[in-house]
Amino acid sequence: MRVGVLTGGGDCPGLNAVIRAIVRKGVQSYGYGFTGFRDGWRGPLEGYSMPLDVPSVRGILPRGGTILGSSRTNPLTLDGGVRRIRENLAKDEIDALIAIGGEDTLGVASRLWGEYGIRCVGVPKTIDNDLSATDYTFGFDTAVNIATEAIDRLHTTAESHMRVLVVEVMGRHAGWIALHSGLAGGANVILIPEQRFDTAQVCAWVESRFQVRYAPIVVVAEGAVPRDGELVLKDGSRDAFGHVRLSGVGEWLAKEIERRTGKEARTTVLGHIQRGGTPSAFDRWLATRFGLHAVDAVRDGDWGTMVALRGTDIVRVPLDTATAKLKTVSPAEYAEAEVLFG
Ligand code: F6P
Q: Is 332 within a domain?
């Protein structure tokens, strides 16, 4: 059996740990051969591959990024995309593919198996932790740790100048990074995409914090949108999913807080720092287990499935339903955090 492996979509700490686990178990336990496809679906589409064996995955466990490279190429939107993939898989004598990615990459894997019979197994990844089929995705814990450390650091500089510090974290459609890092870092306000925020209420929380002589930290997810309809219509744009977004919400909010409260405010946008560098121990553990179980799914011929974490168990779920629904923060979970605001 020869198995192709690819990583697609935005990179994420833990991808190399998955690749390593797949190759080591596949070679040592089942005698499989592996081919690494470069740059997500671009690899099998263009026959862009590299050898993948035990020596080539040595030492990569703690490394961020992906040794295979990544892209957002979608072969299903290209003329003859599926035919080219078939030809390149045949040329390299590939029997099956393990695709490691988020909803787009796994959506392609699901259709390649479901509609075209190309054998695929999926491994979920996203720092946003917004895939409903799995309790956690690797990369999320690392991102939360990085954001929490940033919030800890921003507390001390905010206090020194008695300023408001707004921290913008990743999360286009789900506020998991904002919620977890905000709670862990003791933020005074947390704003998420799932609940439109009221700027007047944010300013009231900010002012109440100053009244007890502490400087407030506001954590805002990049996809959070103010309720103030006029501003959204003027500045908001729609992303690829049709969601309204205020680009640069952190910057906008800091200016608005200054204007309304008269307090000095600054913004820190964490951006891709949340995705780079070495994975946390939890993410290495989860990524390694996902890799080990993905090889078992190949051994069992369980095509069209994705590995997922349920409690402490790794299970398999059908790819088509796994990517269908986003996991978002519920109103109850947000309300639980809200009692600490201000
Ligand atoms: O989906 C993961 C994610 O990190 C989002 O939180 C973020 O909006 C997006 O990727 C940014 O991706 P890129 O800059 O690679 O297009």
A: no
